[in-house]
Write a structure and sequence with these properties.
alpha+beta, 4-stranded antiparallel sheet, about 40% helix, elongated, 9 helices
Length: about 290
């Protein structure tokens, strides 16, 4: 028998009030789902039906990991019994804050889909279970109306473009304009090494796509950081230089915001490399996020 539209939310609230925790099983004519509750928080959701999207797919689509990365992590979890998200963090594939933000959005979207079912049955199955991760959420955090908590500078997560406020965007634009004044500069951008997104860009041309350059250099950044970790080098990258026949490309990670980097392309014929690196250091310091 069908139940009212709010039945899934009501049953989930029942589960969140339970000391035992357990699983909320949801079924409708087209969609089914499972919501896992641990210590009065939402730990995971599984949605089955048209338009359903796994968290691993969300990670790949956000360009945080490759499909090969996901397969290797899943194989390790099957072998060790480890938690998928915690393994991603432990392997250095995704920063914890970035992962938590994406997971929060993913679980929130799945819950909204379940809450929106007009005809559904829902049942709470109490079942105490251990959960080897602290990546769990209050229901209020997963609500579409929830306001993300303030992020301290020391947490240093990557910041998607949609989260940058107007004053921040103005600051980024001003910094990029200063970078374009460097002798020989013809393209510059601020990019997120985790997602490959350009948070701001200037210059470029029909034959030099700045957005594509940002995405491509994301792979350079990630590869270098993996190599440093494998070699046990505990140091920060000041900048990376790529020298072409006619161009210089400089990649400069932001010391104050892990995962973000400045990228500038210069014509060698009229660029002063030493001065360009010096000026890029000043541009980095001028960016306030």
């Amino acid at each position: 028998m069908s139940q009212p539209r709010q039945v899934v939310r009501a049953v989930l609230n029942e589960a969140l009030e339970s000391k035992l925790g357990g699983e909320v099983v949801v079924k409708s004519a087209t969609v089914s789902g499972r919501i896992f509750v641990v210590e009065r928080k939402v730990a995971w959701t599984v949605l089955t039906g048209p338009g359903a999207r796994s968290f691993s797919t969300a990670l790949i689509d956000a360009r945080l990991v490759s499909r090969e990365d996901v397969e290797q992590v899943m194989a390790e979890c099957r072998k060790s019994g480890g938690n998928f998200c915690e393994t991603l963090v432990a392997w250095g594939l995704v920063p914890r804050d970035t992962l938590r933000d994406l997971l929060c959005r993913h679980l929130g979207a799945q819950l909204e889909a379940l809450f929106g079912l007009t005809e559904a049955q829902a049942l709470f199955v109490p079942q105490p279970r251990s959960y080897s991760s602290q990546l769990t959420f209050e229901l209020a955090e997963l609500s579409a109306d929830a306001v993300p908590p303030a992020i301290s500078q020391s947490q240093s997560p990557s910041i998607p473009p949609v989260l940058l406020e107007r004053e921040v965007m103005a600051n980024v634009k001003q910094a990029l304009e200063e970078a374009m004044k460097i002798d020989g500069a013809f393209a510059v951008c601020l990019a997120d090494a985790n997602s490959g997104m350009a948070l701001g860009s200037l210059g470029g041309s029909s034959t030099f796509n700045v957005e594509a350059a940002a995405a491509g250099n994301t792979e350079v950044m990630r590869a270098k950081m993996k190599t440093m970790k494998a070699l046990g080098i505990k140091d920060r990258i000041e900048d990376m230089l790529i020298t072409l026949g006619e161009q210089y490309h400089i990649i400069r990670p932001l010391a104050a915001r892990e995962g973000l980097f400045l990228y500038i392309a210069l014509n060698r014929s009229n660029a002063n490399l030493a001065m360009a690196r010096f000026r890029m250091a000043d541009v980095e310091k001028a960016i306030q996020l």
